[in-house]
Specification:
This protein has 168 residues and is mainly β. It has one domain (33-167). Helix content is 14%, strand content 61%. The chain has one helix and eleven strands; from the N terminus they run αβββββββββββ.
Length: 168
Amino acid sequence: MMRTLLFAAAALALSAAAIAQDHAEHGDHGPTIFHKIELETSYTDDHGGVFDWSMRGWIGGDDERVWLRSEGSVHDGHTQNAEAQIFYGWNVDEFWDLLIGLRHEFEPDSRTYAAVGFVGMLPYFIETEATVFLSEDGGVTARLEHEIDIRLTQELVLEPHLEINLAG
């Protein structure tokens, strides 16, 4: 399932780049393709090693984008939790995108979810992600995340992060 999701995301990205190239060859600027990928990793040598990752990113233009997310943790060589998400998003307001996609948990249990959410910016530049997930078993979960960049100096930034997970 994960390989299929990654293949679909790569194919969509390559086709979007080919369309942009085709427009450029005909003198039309066409859609501009941008991307943003953030990868955070950490490793601790305690208890045989703990490796954590979190990846978030998107590729696309101003109006439509493919969003990718992944996070997980490996303790002592064994994967404790791992998930990947892929969304297609549309810009619905000046600072807000509507997302529709899939989430797949690889560990601790393999499970696939349909997902709907919003990504955007609240006043005072608070970045927000709100997503509702419906599992293949019929379970509903929701995740709400907020973060803000607080500049302490020109190069030092404090980034508080709040994540709330709900299950029903």
